[in-house]
Design brief:
A hairpin with a 2-residue loop joins strand 5 and strand 6 (about 70-75). The chain is mostly beta strands. The chain has no helices and seven strands. The strands form two sheets. Strands 3-2-5-6 form a four-stranded antiparallel beta sheet, with no helix packed on it. Strands 4-1-7 form a three-stranded mixed beta sheet, with no helix packed on it. The protein has strands at about 15-20, 30-35, 40, 50, 60-65, 70-75, 80-85.
């Protein structure tokens, strides 16, 4: 007699939400959330986002905001907190020559 046993790891698609905060715990509004380079949603005024459809975990997502460094993370919990670091922007100016006569 031949017995075949199969084990399946079933991961149910779930509604996902999370919160995006600055390093000093301030909620960040307007953070864009991308999955596979596709904009999925943005954070609200309290830094909270909710995925509009169901996804399987774990999931790689990317956060983008003009004032903060972009960040790629693995989303592995249903309601997770993420922290972004402010970007340091420097500007390079052209050389200006002043000639006094």
């Amino acid at each position: 007699m031949l017995v075949i046993t199969a084990f399946f790891n079933v991961v149910q698609a779930q509604e996902l939400k999370g919160t995006v905060l600055s390093k000093n715990q301030t909620p960040l509004a307007g953070v864009s959330i991308f999955i596979q380079n596709k904009l999925i949603t943005k954070t609200d005024i309290e830094g909270v986002f909710q995925m509009p459809k169901r996804f399987n975990l774990p999931l790689e997502i990317r956060f983008e905001h003009p004032d903060y460094e972009s960040k790629r993370v693995h989303f592995s919990n249903i309601n997770q907190k993420f922290y972004l670091k402010e970007s340091v922007q420097t500007e390079s100016l052209n050389t200006i020559l002043v000639n006094a006569q």
